[in-house]
Amino acid sequence: MEFSTMSEIDPAFIQAPEYRPKLKRIKKTSKEFFDLPLEEKKLAKRDEVNPLGYHDSEHTKNVRDWKELFDFLAKDPTFVPTSHESDDPQLRTIRNQWPAHPPEFRDVCEEYAGEVEKLAYKMLELISLSIGLPGDHLHSCFKYHISFLRVNHYPAYPFPELVLGAGRHKDASAFTVLAQDEVGGLEVRRKSDGAWISIKLVPGAFITNLGDATQVWSNDRYESAEHRVVVNFEKERFSIPFFFYPPHFVMLKPLEELVNEQNPARYREFNLGKFYVSKNRSDFKKREVEYVQIYHFRIF
Ligand SMILES: O=C(O)CCC(=O)C(=O)O
Ligand SMILES: [Fe+2]
After folding, report:
1. What are the residue boundaries of the Fe2OG dioxygenase domain, all occurrences included (predicted)?
2. Count of domains for the chain
3. What are the residues whose beta carbons fall under 8 Å from the beta carbon of 45, sequence distance 6 or more?
């Protein structure tokens, strides 16, 4: 894999041209899936028991997103805590559910996941090196990772100012490797003035946004990027994030190598699995309670 000089202009982009045929295939099969009648898509619908599969009423911070999606695990099956309650030690097995149509959907998605996983490990190495640690420092930590992928379909909407494809949020992952088509719509919040900046479209490039776990590990050297998606008034859009998560049993805290007397840990330790479960149930339905955020674990 070659890293493009784009990264000198904008560190969010990784140019990986060899992935183009795979991107084309997954986009084609995803479009075929989302073009199916709703009743058929709902045969692979996620529910209270299985969080994977088709979903058409995603909420970000209690507001319904203008999109439909299909979630699947990179490793099937995956083990996660049964509940977000801290005193419940039980785990449960979650598994992918695949639609019967299009027939190649499963193979194409699994092949894509395998390839992007390799890219994610490469990114992990670069992140470790960039904070002064050996390239493989975090690798063993991901051995039983609970990552999942999401195929997003944002239908066109004639009044794009009235809805958001995905409301503003930060990803809870270590980082996310995102592929998108040529329509555009992803925006990142600029910290200095809070303005929403459109992410430039670079055909065949992946976008990586750092998530909450990396913010904690790096003791705030890196920040989880706040982002959102606007919809297009005439074109539908597809995007496929790979949310790279450590295993459920990882206790997240600033890496010991990065803390000292001058630079004390800014977060107390917390369990990744419980954090994941709180996050991934919170968008299932409207909720009355506040979303768990990493600042709840902040020491100062
Ligand atoms: O569609 C996109 O570009 C980003 C989607 C996203 O932020 C997410 O699914 O977490
Ligand atoms: Fe996101």
Report:
1. 145-246
2. 1
3. 53, 54, 55
Determine, yes or no, domain membership for 39. yes
Q: Calculate ∠ Cα 224-66-208, nearest 5°.
A: 30
Pairing of strands 237-244, 59-60: unpaired
Residue 212 has pLDDT above 90, yes or no: yes
Q: Domain residues for 195?
A: 12-297
Task: Give yes or no for residue 3 having a pLDDT over 70.
Answer: no
Largest CA distance in the chain: 60
pLDDT tens-place string over residues 114-127: 999 999 999 999 99
Predicted TM-score (pTM) of the model is 0.93
DSSP letter string over 48-102?
SS---EEES--EETTEE-S-EEEEEESSSSEEEES-S-TT---EEEE-----SSS
Q: What value of ipTM does the predicted structure carry?
A: 0.99
CA distances from 239 to 26, 99, 150, 180, 184 (A): 10, 19, 8, 4, 9
Task: Find the range with the poorest average confidence among 2-11, 164-173, 187-196, 198-207.
Answer: 2-11
| Contacts (Cβ under 8 Å, ≥6 apart) of 200 | 10, 13
Which ligand 1 atom lies nearest to the CA of residue 241? 9
Assigned domain for 6 exists: no
Index of the ligand 1 atom closest to the CA of residue 154: 1
8 A C-beta contact, residue 124 and residue 244:
yes
Question: Quick one: tokens of 88?
Answer: 């419940």
State how far Cα 247 lies from the chain centre: 15
51 vs 72: CA distance, rounded Å: 9
**Is 175 within a domain?**
yes
Distance in Å, CA 146 to ligand 2 centroid: 16
Which residue from 186, 201, 206, 210 has its CB within 8 A of the most atoms of ligand 1, so it is best to mutate? 186
| Pocket around ligand 1 at a 6 A CB cut-off | 150, 152, 166, 171, 178, 180, 186, 227, 229, 239, 241
